[in-house]
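Structure in, sequence out. Go:
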């Protein structure tokens, strides 16, 4: 395979006029509560919105930049989830097509986009999670969700697959960027919130911000506590996010970010299918006996400095993240890690040969080390030392995107990324050292046709590459970590879609097909031990992503009111191709159909009422042999809110009203019929629950 310097040279040589994040006019405001997450295409002017700043544009500008991409990208304004129990990523993203987001317990969940990490039974793989454009994942690509506080988030942008290239992401799942509020983009200078509900759940949150001439500052803090629906699932979360910006001149601005995230979460473990459906609140025996838990203390410090030039804009991101993990499971996992990086990016909009052109060129270097120790688990405390290693990861990346408008309504898109990823591991107990290097060159080509402001059609083809993380490469054998060399997962993805709006509604539709080689799949032998990973042969991930809304009625009982029907449908068809063992079986892990239907009545600035129906017609296969699957289910919920006075709202969020017993997520196994294979891999979904809260914005 060509070396990284040669790939980088080829990429720089190819930096011809092309795609950038569009510098378009601000977008229209997001739909009212209950109207769904269908995209609203950019308008020419927006009045009365927070103006943003050089380092963090206004929410309207953020939306416009996202929705000008020739791809199935999605934008979510925090106003869409501010009056509901927004605790984790599912609460923010459950109405985004193409995403499978299911809870296990607390903030631990499964996040999969187009089959990324489809069989990952723990934490995150295959999706780059960013906060303010800066990676949350560790340097090896692994990650979790504990530092994302929905109450600190101002907007979310989802970039499936190669569509995350503008940030440097090129994995199968793509990227999700959570942008926190600044004093310029916050809904109000001060926001206070209190809520409580079933299972001993309560949360307090406060946010304060202020602009001081050329400076601005914001601080947000949340405390969440719950006894948990299941036994041994008590959790406490403390999350602080803050930023300070300073405008040095009309052309230069710098912004510093700081965050502290403390997690204390007991683990109830997975169950057999019978247990999950008949005794779902029970915890696994091993989880109780070993007092299994996940305790994390993390700190994040970052900076973005933006310089507006006569020729474009330069943004330079830098960051350092410290993470301490104490994780008693089958053994006590005791880790202390540090990640750091720098990412410069230049964007420019100009005219070439009379044609409008937009270009972005960037690079990233980020790295990290992690001291990884393991001990015998003595009821949650450290026993004898069993493993002592150091993990080190380094990543070198160059990327570009280019958009050339060959006509006023037709844009040609081209892009590419060159990368080199180094992974090193030292076993300090034996003195053995292991390493792997992954090089790659991932191109992208697409078209965007926008015949009218409110209508878009797009198509693109991209190449993605997923590199194994240390959880993949260090697999547990005899309760010891053993280095397993794995190949990178590669895929070509073709995407075709459209989005638009009309007077009474809108739609967002995308079809995709990924041909994969070396897809990283996992299998579980013992639910208490992290799953093993292997490279499959040829596999196919294909599906449909749809979100649509339609106003059934308007101005019925009051001026401006509306009754809106919303529908989100994600179809997953993921299969082996002529596999020697599994033939053309479906890949285990995700259900084929996930649907969410809402019917909302809203009187703007007064109240809204929105029942919701979640339907999974067929449960996911748990084994690659396709002999054991989760149950199908229909789940009902209700959201409501009322404005008591300007800036003061009271809301209710009722879930699983029929107390349906169902499986929300699972880990994967090879063959449920095989001797010695445990089928205790199912996570029961939460039972009937009710949460009420109030929010003050002033």
């Amino acid at each position: 395979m060509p070396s990284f310097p040669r790939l980088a040279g080829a990429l720089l040589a190819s930096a011809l006029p092309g795609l950038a994040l569009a510098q378009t006019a601000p977008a229209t405001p997001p739909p009212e509560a209950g109207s769904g997450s269908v995209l609203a295409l950019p308008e020419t002017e927006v009045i009365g919105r927070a103006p943003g700043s050089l380092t963090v544009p206004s929410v309207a500008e953020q939306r416009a930049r996202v929705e000008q991409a020739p791809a199935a990208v999605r934008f979510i304004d925090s106003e869409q989830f501010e009056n509901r129990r927004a605790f984790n990523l599912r609460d923010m993203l459950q109405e985004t097509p193409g995403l499978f987001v299911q809870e296990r317990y607390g903030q631990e969940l499964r996040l999969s986009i187009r089959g990324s990490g489809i069989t990952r039974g723990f934490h995150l793989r295959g999706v780059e999670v960013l906060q303010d454009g800066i990676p949350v994942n560790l340097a090896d690509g692994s990650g979790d969700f504990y530092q994302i506080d929905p109450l600190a988030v101002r907007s979310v942008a989802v970039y499936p697959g190669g569509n995350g290239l503008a940030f440097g992401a090129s994995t199968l799942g793509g990227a999700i960027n959570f942008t926190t509020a600044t004093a310029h983009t916050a809904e109000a200078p001060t926001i206070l919130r209190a809520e409580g509900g079933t299972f001993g759940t309560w949360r307090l949150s406060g946010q304060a911000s202020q602009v001081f001439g050329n400076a601005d500052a914001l601080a947000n803090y949340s405390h969440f506590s719950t006894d948990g629906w299941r036994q041994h699932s008590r959790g406490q979360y403390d999350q602080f996010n803050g930023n300070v910006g300073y405008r040095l001149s009309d052309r230069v601005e710098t912004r510093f970010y700081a965050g502290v995230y403390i997690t204390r979460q007991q683990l109830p473990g997975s169950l057999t299918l019978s247990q999950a459906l008949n005794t779902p609140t029970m915890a696994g025996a091993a989880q109780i006996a070993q007092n299994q838990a996940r305790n994390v203390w993390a700190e994040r410090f970052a900076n973005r400095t933006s310089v507006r030039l006569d020729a474009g804009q330069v943004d330079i991101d830098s960051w350092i993240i410290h993470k301490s993990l104490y994780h008693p499971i089958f053994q006590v996992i005791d880790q202390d890690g540090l990640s750091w990086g720098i990412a410069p990016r230049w964007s420019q909009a100009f005219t070439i040969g009379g044609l409008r052109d937009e270009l972005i060129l960037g690079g990233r270097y980020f790295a990290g080390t992690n001291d990884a120790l393991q001990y015998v688990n003595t009821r949650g405390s450290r026993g004898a030392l069993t493993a002592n290693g150091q993990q080190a990861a380094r990543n070198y990346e160059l990327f570009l995107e280019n958009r050339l408008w060959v006509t006023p309504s037709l844009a040609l898109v081209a892009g590419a990324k060159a990368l080199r990823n180094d992974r090193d591991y030292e076993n300090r107990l034996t003195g053995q050292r292991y390493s792997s290097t992954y090089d790659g060159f991932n191109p992208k080509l697409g078209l965007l046709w926008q015949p009218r402001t409110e209508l878009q059609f797009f198509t693109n083809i991209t190449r993605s590459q997923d590199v194994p993380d240390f959880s993949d490469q260090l697999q547990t054998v005899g309760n010891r970590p053993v280095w397993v060399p794995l190949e990178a997962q590669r895929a070509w993805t073709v995407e075709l879609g459209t989005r638009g709006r009309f007077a009474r509604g809108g739609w967002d539709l995308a079809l995709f097909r990924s041909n994969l080689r070396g897809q990283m799949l996992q299998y579980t032998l013992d639910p208490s031990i992290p799953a093993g990973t292997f490279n499959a042969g040829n596999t196919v991930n294909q599906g449909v992503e749809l979100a649509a809304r339609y106003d059934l009625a308007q101005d019925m009982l009051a001026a401006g009111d509306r009754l809106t029907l919303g529908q989100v449908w994600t179809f997953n068809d993921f299969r082996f191709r002529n596999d020697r063992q599994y033939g053309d079986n479906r890949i285990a892990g995700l259900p084929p159909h996930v649907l969410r239907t809402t019917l909302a009545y809203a009187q703007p600035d007064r109240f809204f009422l929105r029942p919701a129906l979640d339907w999974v017609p067929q449960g996911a296969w748990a084994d690659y042999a396709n002999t054991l699957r989760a149950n199908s289910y229909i789940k009902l919920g209700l959201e409501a809110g009322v404005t008591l006075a300007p800036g003061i709202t009271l809301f209710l969020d009722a879930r699983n009203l029929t107390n349906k017993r169902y499986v929300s997520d699972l880990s994967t196994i090879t063959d449920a019929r095989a001797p010695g294979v445990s089928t205790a891999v199912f996570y029961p979904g939460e039972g009937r629950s009710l949460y009420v809260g109030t929010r003050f914005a002033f």
